[in-house]
# Entry
Amino acid sequence: MSNLIMVVFFSLIGGLFSLIGGLLMVANKQRAKKLATYATPFAAGALLAAAFIDLLREASHEGSIDTALVFTLAGILVFFLLERFLHWFHHHHEHADKKSDPTTSLIIVGDTLHNFIDGIAIAAGFLVSPSTGIIVTLAVAAHEIPQEIGDFGLLLHKGMARAKVIWVNIFSALATTVAAVIFFQLGQAVAIPFDAILGLIAGFFIYIAVSDIIPEIHKNEAKRFAGWQSIMLIIGAILVSTVTVTLHGYIDQGHDHEHAAQETHEHNEEEEEHHDHDDTATRHD
# Structure
């Protein structure tokens, strides 16, 4: 399977497969809420493990860990400011026009932007290695399932028809694949500072987990030391960490052998060209 096909396949998993949570919301609201209760903290653990165990480690291999950490901090701040802008935009328009309700459009725009960023993250993962791409996809899908439950619920609450909610979210989810293909092709055409890009993605994952998900766990389990949501967060972190180590041990080993063989072939071709050039120069002498 070519790298581009893998990017398309896994970005579709990260985007469209995550709609399963939203479709469950349409079919059975109570089951969807129950799924979100446990899937949300699991996603937080998955995102944190992907950020610390995989992305930052790969960033240190691809360049400077100092650069990666600076861009991790920058990623957290950028996504904080982006979220604040969306809240400000919503608040501003509420006061500007009391008759309109921009919340529905903002939900769709915000979800599409989120999906687009997910696609960039998946593409960056595959540009580094197949295992990193798969791990990023798993983290994205784990987060998007409960996220889509929330988005579907909000749009239905705003009065949007069920069929329209489904189609809107399908087109929004396709932004993941579009972004993944564009960024992957761009990454193959030009040199990309992977330490910086992976740092930004790690910051994105950490921000989502720490600012959006974990506070909900504290709110729901305020009177308990460790309820089921806390346990699911730990399970998510342990599972993704284990998958990370396993995938890097098996998939990347074959990928490294293939890459080494290609480098050896290119080196042999260069030596043959150099040898032919020397022979030609000798005959002219």
Q: What stands out?
A: The chain has nine helices and no strands.
